């Protein structure tokens, strides 16, 4: 993805989440999401942590070359007990706010700041995060992909909420296509969001879909 497009896509992704949560009351912020055990406020706290990490990473220049790119970055997250412990920590941390809307207020301050920092960063430069070195444009694409997937998670029980924006969605779709190997045929009945939900295991493949995909069905999901 082009460097300027990476910045625009991240802003699109974060703006989309902001639109979803801006007017939610504390009751709505306690609705369920697609992430097991997490309410809307819990999941928003997780994405807030990403936006904070983006700010830190963009202020953490590194010497190249990159050790991972926007696709291979995802190979370093095996899940398991560590993921369960993190999920519990995030839920307890979100619950420490005086009210669920406190998470929204901190998100509203942090996400735009991360988007502005992304716009000012040298897209060809290198930064470090989580023990990796990435080109700035690739870093932004990882944050965009995660934000889009979690946007879809957030709106499970919010039927009137808007979907992720098109610029951000294109980045997320490109990421899962690359992770799936590029040869997988996307079924004709799937829109971009259907595809993302299946590629990330949010929606299971039905038997007719498995038959159509053939041997490629075994590659699903590619992200948790």
TrEMBL record:
InterPro entries: DinB/YfiT-like, MDMPI_metal-binding. Keywords: Isomerase, Pyruvate. This is Maleylpyruvate isomerase family protein. One of its GO terms (molecular function) is isomerase activity. Residues 14-154 form the Mycothiol-dependent maleylpyruvate isomerase metal-binding domain. Pfam families: MDMPI_N.
